[in-house]
Amino acid sequence: MRRILIDLVLQLVAVVAVTLLVAVLLVVGPTRLGGSVDRIKSNLRTIAPTALVLATVLVINGVVRDVGVEMSWIIGVNVTGLILSIEGGFVGGVQSVASPPLTAYFSLIYVFGYAFLLTFPLVIYLLHDDVRPLHETVVAYGVNYGVGVVCYVLFVAYGPRNAIPDLVEPLLYTNWPQSQLLVRQVNANTNVLPSLHTSLSVTVALLAYRFRNVYPRWPPIAAWLAASVAVSTMYLGIHWGIDVLGGIALAALSVHVSGRVETDAVRDRVGDVGRHVRG
Amino acid sequence: MARSLVTPRLRRRTAIGALAAGATGLTSGCLRRIRALTGWQSPDQLSLRIKTLPADADPYALPLARRIAGWFGEAGIDADVLPMAEQSLLREVLLTNEFDLFVTRTPAEYRHPDALYSLLHSRFVTTPGWQNPFGYTNLEVDELLERQRRTGDDRRRATVEDLQRRVIETQPFTVLGFADELRAARTDRFTNWQLVDLRAPMGYLALRRSGDLEDGGKGSDEAGHLRVVSTDSRPTKNLNPLAVEFRSGSVLTGLLYDSLGYRAREGAIRPWLADSWSFTMEGGGPSLELQLRDGLAWHDGESLTADDVAFTYAFLADTSLDPDRDGDSEADGTDPIPAPRFQGRISLVADVTAVDDRTVEFRFVDANPAVVGRALTVPILPRHVWRERTGRASVTGVDIWAATEALVTDNVPPVGSGPLAFADNTPNEELILEAFDDHFLADGPVPGLPESVQGGPAFDRMTLGVVGTDATAVDMVDADSADVTATPLGAGVVPKIARSTALDLVAGQSDAFYLLGYNTRRTPLTNPRFRTALARIIDRRTLASTVFEGYARPAASPLQGTGWVPSDLQWRDGGRNPVHPFPGTDGELDVSRARDLFREAGYRYAKGELLDE
Fold first, then answer.
1. Distance, CA of B223 to CA of B202 (rounded, Å)
2. Is A162 in Cβ contact with B62 (below 8 Å)?
3. Per the structure, how many domains does chain A have?
4. What is the residue range of A208's domain?
5. pLDDT digits (tens, 9 = 90+) for B397-422
6. What would the pLDDT profile of B58-72 be if each residue is shown by its tens digit?
7. Residues near A148 by Cβ (< 8 Å), separated by ≥ 6?
8. CB contact under 8 A, B55 and A190
């Protein structure tokens, strides 16, 4: 079993790496890659403290996946019934358009598309002269995970595939059972409110729009992918419509916060370029 | 529950509101009218919540609960379904009794009449665990449960039949059906799947390596490795045979811990750790002298003696082993803290003494020897490990009054004497067990035991891997990452198994049934007429054909299929409910007839809603 999981992870890493490479050439362009090593070094130095905070949040997130699930059964509120009473079989409605090609598309988006969407901004903003996009991305990710963890402890909820199996098919797992091994590593089945898939994807899209002057080709791609990820979470029966709305709200919050948080180091380095970009 | 707290408060508020309104035109006539009305507030709609497991944890429980809530809804009840993790469900149902109704599969232990004793006797209403979780108190049933213990043969049969009639009449729970046990197995490494019963530890011992492996087909280290895949992560975290919310059956703990006797296929209890025993009837109840096998050992190398056996029975009866409480005297006014999971069986035992290293003497309560044999199936625990666990359980220094350390410890690593010993675990991922070389089965043929288990397990190592869903579990077996699915699968994956050439579908009739349990401590579930009306509007034939997709048999009695069910309670193949016919056809509820059922039970409707009186 571990063998299959490792294969899956390697597959994911390989696919995302290749896609990143191609996408960097397309979005950044070979001409802007010159002298990138120094830029990367300097950018990394600048955002190191923030990145450390993000890393801490991620570690806590990892721990909470095990401990928090136990804790949320003790102190959390089971809101599955509440969500169901509000939106009913909405996700079943989303699934009514299901077809094998769509299922394949959304499965790939949910796993590979999402992994790409999260890593790509880090790569391209790392290559950029101005550190602010990179810094804001890292801050926004941190807010997403931080708020997400708190919500997961406070709210216990099963997704539609687990709460209304008579109306919603677990499409991801019936069509690609092995993906469950991978998903299980990053999420527990009671952690659905809000959808972190949605919130992080929408965060990336919003930041792509905020910094649209940096890489003009990126915002439309990001928007398309983010919309696909958000729909995929419902189409595959993993999240409720309310989780997705919660995810969008969290994305808006994190992007708002990231625009306000500036470390001294960033402020020193931003100078005129930053102001120009912010328009 | 919040609901029952809120309702009276709302009513009071309504009354106060009415008074306030009345104050504007305060006349003595108005006051008199308000006074006359105070006993007649309009009641709210009756609401019931069904707690159950999510689809990941159980393929049928949630669809069953939702279908039932649908029928209840048509009958005017505000019914909702709440899925919760297995551990939390068992905690709320079996330990804290915070539920209206629950749907789950029972542990496979209710296949003989005396098992109903601990499930339904009113002396267990406050006991945690699968001991009367319904809070059911029926003096007549109590009397019948006691009588079937004492009587033999024909009189016992008549008593058990009466018992079933009374229980079905009053519905402390509703049997929803016996679901077939479905598994996916691959045959290239182990065979025998169709013959063994993987719901019992003996099933794992009876597996055989497939022919080409014995001839050295694959590397021998790989050949001796049984890989099972499970959707239940609890055994990777907790291996305590006494832990109520972590155990749904006794298969894994049964491989780790031996008992004195085992239940043979025909139902009788035969010697396992015991070499032999003999019953004598004298005085109040039967007694038994038992010889242990020679050279028994624990997994840590200590030898297993009669002292361990005597300790186990005293310990399961009172896990605090309070030395001040000698016999019945209450030294400090605190009652014993028994191990809930074994209370039914322990209640048969009066006294156990170690005569010498290998001889144990049992005195039982007044009961038929055929019944008391059950007491010999509890796991035998090592005294040197468990006597350290008699203290009160504490969380950060605060003692929990009702539990001892023994009931809440995760018991990892476990020290048992069973054919498999603990090797390693990764919580939520994996559990590894190894064959125990010093087990009595490993010493060559043991006279008196079935041929299938001779020589011990056909593997040196057993790995239990955890995945999240049935479909993934089947896929793991298909991809040669596992040999068999340990947890029973839902009917939904049968086509997937059938499509794969590598997979065998192993289907067996199940001893465990799905039930809808009622909390008879809560109104209106206190009322047997109300419970019966609920049971009537559950079409179990439709559940069998839709939710179970045909892989289940509907039943009225929990003992269906055991030979103890009288003909008037038998659910014939394809037939209707023999006791509580469904008011409707093919799952379509005849709403007016359903409402009449509740009206006959004394309930009223307003605007199609059943009122909470």
1. 20
2. yes
3. 1
4. 2-25+37-269
5. 566 667 888 988 999 999 999 999 99
6. 999 999 999 999 999
7. A61, A194, A196, A199, A250
8. no
